[in-house]
Amino acid sequence: MEDNPRTLSLEEQHDLARDGFLVIRRLASPETCTQLLQTVHGELNKPSEPSGPSGPIEYEADLGYAGAPADRDAVGGTTIRRLRQAYQRHPLLAQWATNPELINCLRPLLGHDLVLPMAHHNCVMTKQPQFSSRTEWHQDFRYWSFQRPELFSAWLALGPETAENGALEVVPGSHALTLDTTRFDEQQFFRNDLENNRRLLESRQLVTLEPGDVLLFHCLVLHAAGPNLTRDTKYSVVFTYRPADNPPSPGSRSAATPEVSLDSTPPRP
């Protein structure tokens, strides 16, 4: 680790508090991105793993989102959307999740004692050409169960992320809004048939990233992503973090998987 590791400046902390998201350029080195990309390719080339609603592989066909194959027997039905359990998959992925500079950037937001939940994100997103789907507008916290909406996700780009290959879009400041449940559908997606929702989405912002850039975003930020219209797969590594005093609700899916305390557990699984 460097003598003066990267952390957030006061200006960056202000911007993040205002917008709910922040891009940290080149937080991961080119060498780290290359090693992680090689690791991801190795994981993708392993023999098929068991899958299901919470299995280690999520397929586009499992979700039924716009643009996805109808089922796993359809053309493109075995297109992988996400490799779950990234921390447990390989030491290099665990090392990134506990990278000192990444953690240093999170501590001003969440406090000194951080916890890495294993139940949410903890994944490699693989947005593949031709059969990738669109993810509609949503807030991550609507699918999670913790005492408070105090969690941040760190999205690492392993390659360029653009409008053409399905980069994330976000609504600045949406984490600070009180959004009534009626503004979301039964799948907890933000409804596009409501005029007040459409007006809010007019302020959306595309987040373009280069390899090594990290997007930090609050769990209440509205975000979405389009399909990959290029010929190359887009790879992103995503982990979520919470303060130690914000535990998951007992008996919930958020509490079903052991977590990692970043102050007491070695970085490798």
Concise synopsis of the structure shown:
With 269 residues, this protein is an alpha+beta fold.
Describe the structure.
The protein is an alpha+beta fold. The chain has a single domain, classed as q2cbj1_9rhob like domain (Jelly Rolls), CATH 2.60.120.620. Helix content is 22%, strand content 20%. The chain is built from 7 helices and 13 strands. Strands 1, 2, 3, 4, 5, 7, 10, 12 and 13 form a 9-stranded antiparallel β-sheet that branches.
Overall tally of domains: 1
State the name of the first-level CATH class.
Mainly Beta
Residue-averaged pLDDT: 91
Give the full name of the CATH homologous superfamily.
Answer: q2cbj1_9rhob like domain
CATH architecture: Sandwich
Helix content: 10-25%
User: What is the gyration radius calculated from CA atoms?
Assistant: 18 Å
Secondary-structure element order, N to C: HEHEHEHHHEEEEEHEEEEE
Descriptors:
single chain; 269 residues; alpha+beta; Jelly Rolls; nine-stranded antiparallel beta sheet; four-stranded antiparallel beta sheet; 20% strand; globular; disordered C terminus
Please specify the SSE layout and strand pairing.
Elements: H1 10-19, E1 21-24, H2 30-44, E2 57-59, H3 60-63, E3 80-83, H4 86-89, H5 91-97, H6 100-110, E4 114-116, E5 123-127, E6 135-138, E7 152-157, E8 168-170, H7 195-201, E9 205-206, E10 214-218, E11 223-225, E12 234-243, E13 260-261
Antiparallel strand pairs: 1-10, 2-3, 3-5, 4-12, 4-13, 5-12, 6-11, 7-10, 7-12, 8-9, 8-11
